[in-house]
Amino acid sequence: MNKLSRKHMHMEAFLATPHHVLLRYGLMLALPLVVLWLIATLPLYGLGPELPRIVGSAVLIVLLSGAGASLIKLQYRIMSFPGVEHTLPVNYAAASLGFAMLLVIMSGTEPQFLAMGRLIQVTVLAAPALVFIPALLYAMGYSLIIHRILMRNTNLDFNYLVGSRHLEEQLAALWERPKEFGEPLSLMLLQFRPQEQAISPTAPNVTSYYPEIVEKALPIVDQIIRKNDVADQFSSDAIWVILGRTGADSVDIPRNRIRSRLQGDAEFAAAIKRVGLEVVPGVASYRRDMDSPKHLIHAAEEALAPQAARLK
Question: What is the DSSP letter of 48?
């Protein structure tokens, strides 16, 4: 399973964060900016006629900073569309600078501009860069700080984002067999979680993950699954197993065999015992009312909680 790069983690963290949370982070960053703005301007202009303009600029800073994080999320949303390059911010920045300079160069064809002295011409040509470069640096710094805030406060399981997509792709390749030809198909999720809890691997309040346990379990599962079965990592605390040619009436045999094999492996049993985990299987089988692989995945996730209740 291909892991998400740091850049893609940033994108996914933004896409999964509600807008009101992003607004709060943006407003938090606006406070020191407004203070710096007032410190820099009030000593120069005082409380005279320029005060309304200074206050208006401070309000504009708050509005732009508050909306900035949501604008970054919108940008990432566009970048997530198929066929859109992930270098969009760099391309956009380069295109904006190039367009600004092009306008200045075009204005250079005017006789008035050509008649100006060299110093004035250089000053006019450099003016867009003098405005654009600080704005670009500020935008990059703002984005970096928001990224760090999100990554520090998110409990998003990035392994789940990759694992669930990979699982959906695998099921999509097999979906025609049960849909068109009636071939049985089942999906099993094996979750490793604390014995006193019964939670879904995608529950928003999950903060404890065990990727090292999943890494130990996956080779064991690979060794004992059947020829028509496929297994891989589902999340930071779960594994998925596609049970090919297996219907609801015959899932008990592979489910019990895999679970017993994991619990019977001395090294793995000792590893989960040290951290107080149990192996909880959740199994779902294809039904005619399932229109896509997502429905089968959702049914297997829902099956985890009842399984946990029966195991206690």
Answer: S
Residue 110 scores a pLDDT above 90: no
The CA radius of gyration of the chain, in Å to the nearest whole number, is 28
Helix 51-79 and helix 19-45, axial crossing angle in degrees, nearest 10: 150
What is the Cβ-side half-sphere exposure of residue 145, based on CA atoms within 13 angstroms?
Answer: 17
How many other CB atoms are there within 10 angstroms of residue 193's CB atom?
Answer: 25
Of 228, 246, 233, 232, nearest in space to 283 by CA = 246
Tokens of 245: 């040619």
Q: Give me 172's structure tokens.
A: 């999509």
Q: What is the DSSP letter of 2?
A: P
pTM of the full predicted structure?
Answer: 0.72
CA-based nearest residue to 185, from 283, 65, 38, 274: 283
Task: Tell me the pLDDT tens digit for each residue of 244-262.
Answer: 999 999 999 999 999 999 9
| Distance between CA atoms of residues 183 and 246, nearest Å | 8
Q: Decide: 199 and 254 in contact? Cβ < 8 Å.
A: no
Please state, in angstroms and as integers, the Cα–Cα distance from residue 168 to each residue in 143, 240, 254, following that order. Answer: 32, 11, 21
How far, in Å, CA of 172 to CA of 89, rounded? 33
Distance between CA 237 and CA 157 in Å, rounded? 9
Decide if 58 contacts 38 (C-beta within 8 A).
Answer: yes
Place of tokens 């040290």: 274
Phi, psi of 285, deg, nearest 5: -115, 155
For residue 86, what is the DSSP state?
Answer: T
pLDDT tens digits for 152-198? 998 899 999 999 999 999 999 999 999 999 999 999 999 998 885 54
